[in-house]
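Sequence in, structure out.
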Amino acid sequence: MTEITFEKITKHFDRVKVIQDLNLTVNKGEFFTFVGPSGCGKSTILNMLAGLEDVTSGTIFFDDMPVNDLSPKDRDVAMVFQSYALYPHMTVYDNIAFPLKMKKQQNVSLDTEVHRVASLLSLDDLLKRKPRELSGGQRQRVALGRAIIRKPKVFLMDEPLSNLDARLRVEMRAELKKLHNKLKITTIYVTHDQAEAMSLSDRIAVLYNGTIQQCGTPREVYIKPKNIMVAGFIGSPPMNFVPASVQKSAPLEVICNEMIFSPSIEILPENTNLVIGIRPEDVLISFEKSAGSIEVTVSLIESAGSFNWIDVMWHRIKVKGVSQIDERLQTGGTAFMKFPLDKVIIFDKETERRM
C-alpha cells in the first residue's frame, strides 16, 4: 500500500492555470475520488500521477519518494480508462496476460495469475472471447483485470464507468467497492458523477476551477458542505437555494421569502444577505395543510417509483421536494410544504461560505 502526497502542485497549459496550489495526502489503501464538473482539472491530476503530464511546480510523493522525474513505467501505477483500451485482436486471456508477457513472466506462473484474476472478476467463462463479443460491463472488467494482474502500487481510474448504461453503472460500482475491499490497493478515481463518488469513496475532494473546495468523507461533504458550490454539486437532485437576510442579530433572526425563523448556526454572519439551502429530500409536499406548513403552487410532478419529486413555486422561488406516491396533487394546484428547520443550511451570499 502506498501513501500519495501532493505538495504545492500547480499545472499550467501556456497561460491557463489548470491546477492551483494542490496540497493533499491520500492515505495508504484509501479509495480516494476527485469529483467535479467537466474541465475542473480532475483528469489532469490523474495524468500527472501517471507521469503522462509534467507538473509545472511542486512535488508528488509516493510514500516518501518524489516521483516527478520518474517515467510512467517506473512509477508502478495501473490506469483504467473510460474507453476500456482493450486490444481488439486479442482474447480476454491475452488482454489480461499482456502486462505480464511484457515482463517476460514464465508461462506457468502467468497462466495461474490470469486465472486468479479472471476468477476474481467472474471472467472465467469468457477467456477465449474477443472484446467485440463482450458487453460493456464485461469489457470494463477485462480492463480492470489487466490493471489488477500487474499488482501495482496505485490504481488510477479515469471515469471508468461513464460508458455504461445506468443499471450496469450501479452493478459495476458495487463490484469496484468489493474489489477494493479485497485488494486494499491505494486507488485514485476521478468522475463528474457525484453519486459514484459518494458510493465508492473513503474520502472525496470536490474540485472546481483547479482548486479543492472541500475534502472529507462523503457524509461530511454532504451534511456540512463548506460553500454553495459544494452544496449544489453534491446531492441529487441538487440542493434548493433561497435568498434570505438577517432581520435581527441578537438573538439571530432570519427572514426568508416572508418566513421568519431563528437558526442555530456555527458562525455568525458578517453580512446581512444570506442564502438558505434545503435538500429536496427534506422538503415534504402534501395536499393536506398541517401546523407550520407553507402554501405553495405545484408546477411539476415527477414519478420516482415509490415517491414523487415535486416542483413547487414558493411565491416566486422554485423549490423541489418529495411527496407520497398517493398524494392528491395536480400541476397548477395548491399544496402545502414543510421542512425541518434543523436541516436548513445557511450561507453568506457574498463569500458563499456556510455559516
